[in-house]
């Protein structure tokens, strides 16, 4: 039986609360649509709620999407005892019925958002766990071992995400500080939200900033507003203030002039999908920032856990880019509501603009020939 737990990352901002008590999982997520003005946790009672929380962007951020999907599945499967009994009867026919029942829910969850690979990687990983958890013939319930394995894995995912993020923070801080030795610390620029609110805790790119801040080596951090959904101004600005970092908010269009006039030591951004050749899908506006950084001679790092790597995809031109409803753009821009608009949620930054990829296993740097060997790096560290 999975061990009883209560998820707490020690973070000031908890993106979710997950509990497993008396064989029952429960989940509430912080409604990010209401931030920064209201802190409200909403319950996720089944896979439909999990799907809806992801699709509506009450939760967002590549790692968090995947985690909420798996936790939502755990809640769904432990909540309905009548279904469990029915499935156990079905198991008289074969455990394949149970597997199909669970796989259908997993497939449904992957239809919530297309671009972040974490969701797809998480479901693949879970499938392996389900395949390996064959109930014994003496077991009174055929269903329970699967549910137990899923709950245990959900708890593991929560812990792994926070520890990976802390390792990313440490590797990123060490690497950047090895070249930038100003005693006042380093000046960063970031886009979107990659902190506690985008993960199970601590954050990826913002986790690097947090680690520098913890070491008293973060001189400043500039956060791009991240139009049109404003994850930068609503969420990253909130995290920066909560953590008492020295932060400045910029409109996306100010990035070039900011780097030209104020300067920065590094841009650090998150990722939704890192391809085999290092091309990286991330929030819309990341490509523009990378091009500007290269022109201005500023290092450009992607902070990505292994769960965001997609080494099965050769290059970025194959990434499915989510298009969000026009209303999301129209509402935040003040445009006439009938104005046609294009609202891609992500773009792909070619590897040639990326200085390195900061992972929990270390920093993958460009080779002498200017390429990023993601596949070789994964092989070396697996
Ligand atoms: O549309 P969102 O808010 O889910 O997009 C989030 C991003 O693009 C993040 O930069 C990325 O998921 C990394 S989060 C650690």
TrEMBL record:
Site positions for Transition state stabilizer: 192
Reactions accelerated catalytically: 5-(methylsulfanyl)-alpha-D-ribose 1-phosphate = 5-(methylsulfanyl)-D-ribulose 1-phosphate
Keyword terms, alphabetized: Amino-acid biosynthesis, Cytoplasm, Isomerase, Methionine biosynthesis, Nucleus
EC number: 5.3.1.23
Pfam families on file: IF-2B
InterPro entries listed in its UniProt record: IF-2B-related (IPR000649), IF-M1Pi (IPR005251), IF_2B-like_C (IPR042529), Initiation_fac_2B_a/b/d (IPR011559), M1Pi_N (IPR027363), NagB/RpiA_transferase-like (IPR037171)
GO cellular component, as recorded: cytoplasm; nucleus
Compartmental location: Cytoplasm; Nucleus
GO biological process per UniProt: L-methionine salvage from methylthioadenosine
Presence of the UniProt keyword Amino-acid biosynthesis in the record: yes
Keyword Isomerase: yes
Enzyme class: isomerase
Pathway: Amino-acid biosynthesis; L-methionine biosynthesis via salvage pathway; L-methionine from S-methyl-5-thio-alpha-D-ribose 1-phosphate: step 1/6
Active site per UniProt: 272 (proton donor)
Annotated function: Catalyzes the interconversion of methylthioribose-1-phosphate (MTR-1-P) into methylthioribulose-1-phosphate (MTRu-1-P).
Protein family (similarity comment): Belongs to the eIF-2B alpha/beta/delta subunits family. MtnA subfamily.
Name the record gives this protein: Methylthioribose-1-phosphate isomerase
